[in-house]
Amino acid sequence: MSKVIFLLSLLCVALCSTAQEIKSFDIDLWQNGLPNSNGIDNEPYDNEKRNFKPSIRVYLPEESQRNGMAILVVPGGGYRMLSIGQEGYDWANYFVPNGIATIVLSYRMPMGHKEVPMSDATEAMRLIRENAKEWGIEAEKVGILGSSAGGHLASTISTHNDESTRPNFQILFYPVISMDKEYTHLDSHNCFVGENATKEEEDAYSNQLHVTETTPPAILLLSDDDFLVSPRNSAEYYLALKKANVKASMHVYPRGGHGWGCGNWFKYKEQMLKDLQIWIDDLYAPAPEIPAFMKR
């Protein structure tokens, strides 16, 4: 028995060492001064006070492994905090070995100033494309991954930005999409547009209302029993994408609740990663030949 435990320990060390070998470096987003303020970002940055430093952490695959793709990862947290572990940094352990550059965003909380996180995410996209050649990235293969409120920020950037900082694809985990009080995540709503937001302000950032033919392709992954963010958010976004003839896929797992990210405790993690990989692989693959009997 002791030999088995010893071997398992060695395996655990090996796996941990592999994860630790993924090197990273950090870049501050606003080295020449902040373009706007949420009211507390003029004080020393302190995560415990929700005063997060606007920055990115960049993980690059080895040169021989790179496939030209990059993903900006936007953690959730209800626009109150950042779940930057399993919804942020941990994604590097999956994407980087698959040749995909992974850039994790630390963004400022809105505190009623919606332009603040939007500007941080937009600047991160700009920096990725500006450094694409140096980092071994193809500028037209830069996607965004957002979870929960991070999914709202990711879909906002995808539906509101122009081509220069609009992602090429979206990966959205149990996202907040709408600011409609009927089915939004109310805490995210209050932090982003404000508790007393008008219908016009809510509609402006209910992203299902802003999908066009230029909105990037999306995959939505969520649980049917999500107790925090109504699955209706994803359903409405999926339908809007299809109405605009935008490539989209949606995977609803029977159980899991909310906030699983790439956590090992999620029962359907293996299936979720397979679904995600198939979708990513298909993004830039040639269109399959349609059998003659299926053609109209």
Give structural notes.
This protein has helices spanning 2-20, 92-95, 115-130, 132-135, 149-160, 186-192, 199-204, 232-243, 269-283; strands at residues 24-28, 55-59, 70-74, 101-106, 142-147, 170-173, 218-223, 248-253. It has 296 residues and is α/β, with parallel strands linked by helices. The chain has an 8-stranded mixed β-sheet with strand order 1-2-4-3-5-6-7-8, with helices on both faces. Helix 3 (115-130) packs across helix 5 (149-160). It is globular and about 65 Å long. The model is unreliable at 1-20 (pLDDT under 50).
* Average of per-residue pLDDT values: 92
Main beta sheet: strand number and arrangement? 8 strands, mixed
Rounded Rg:
19 Å
**Major beta sheet, strand line-up:** 1-2-4-3-5-6-7-8
Which term fits the overall shape? globular
Helical run tally: 9
Low-confidence stretches: 1-20
Distance between the termini: 64 Å
Number of strands: 8
Series of H and E elements: HEEEHEHHEHEHHEHEH
Secondary-structure content class: alpha/beta
Short synopsis of the structure:
The protein has 296 residues and is of the alpha/beta class. The protein is built from nine helices and eight strands. Helix 3 packs across helix 5 (149-160).
